[in-house]
């Protein structure tokens, strides 16, 4: 079996999170979804597990608690996804906003052959998207 990655994220509102991830075009895996969690397939071996905050807490030992995005102005993680085209970056941002998210960092082109942006889901978890043309990269 190939190695897989599951990004586990706490949510305050599972229905709002579901609307956001559905708007991005991800596929909900009903086998791993219930009233406490939703599993969203991003790619063949990558899934986002969106867990109600209370349920997320059951996986944490001792006094640990879920990080509250934006509460301290610090980020615990920045999830990054590749895109096949520069246009896909813009389309991803549009779908994110339509789905209840917000623009965290507007799209830009830091150098020729790269387009990037970042969005936040309804709970403030940041997803960066980027397209790169290796033939245009310096060096």
From TrEMBL:
GO molecular-function terms, A-Z: lyase activity
Residue span, VOC domain: 3-132
Gene3D superfamilies referenced in this protein's UniProt entry, alphabetically: 2,3-Dihydroxybiphenyl 1,2-Dioxygenase, domain 1
Keyword Lyase part of the UniProt annotation: yes
Record-linked Pfam families: Glyoxalase
Segment forming the signal sequence: none
Lyase in keyword set: yes
Keywords, alphabetical: Lyase
Protein origin, superkingdom: Bacteria
Protein name: Lactoylglutathione lyase
């Amino acid at each position: 079996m190939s190695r897989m990655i599951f990004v586990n994220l706490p949510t305050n509102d599972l229905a709002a999170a579901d609307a956001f991830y559905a708007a991005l075009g991800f596929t909900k895996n009903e086998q791993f979804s219930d009233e406490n969690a939703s599993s969203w397939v991003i790619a063949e071996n990558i899934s986002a597990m969106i867990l109600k905050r209370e349920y997320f807490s059951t996986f944490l030992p001792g006094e640990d608690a879920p990080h509250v995005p934006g509460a301290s102005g610090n980020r615990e993680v920045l999830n990054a996804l590749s895109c096949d085209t520069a246009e896909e970056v813009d389309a991803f941002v549009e779908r994110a906003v339509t789905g209840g998210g917000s623009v965290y960092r507007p799209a830009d082109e830091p150098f020729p052959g790269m387009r990037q942006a970042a969005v936040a889901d309804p709970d403030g978890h940041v997803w960066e998207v980027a397209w790169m043309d290796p033939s245009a990269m310096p060096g």
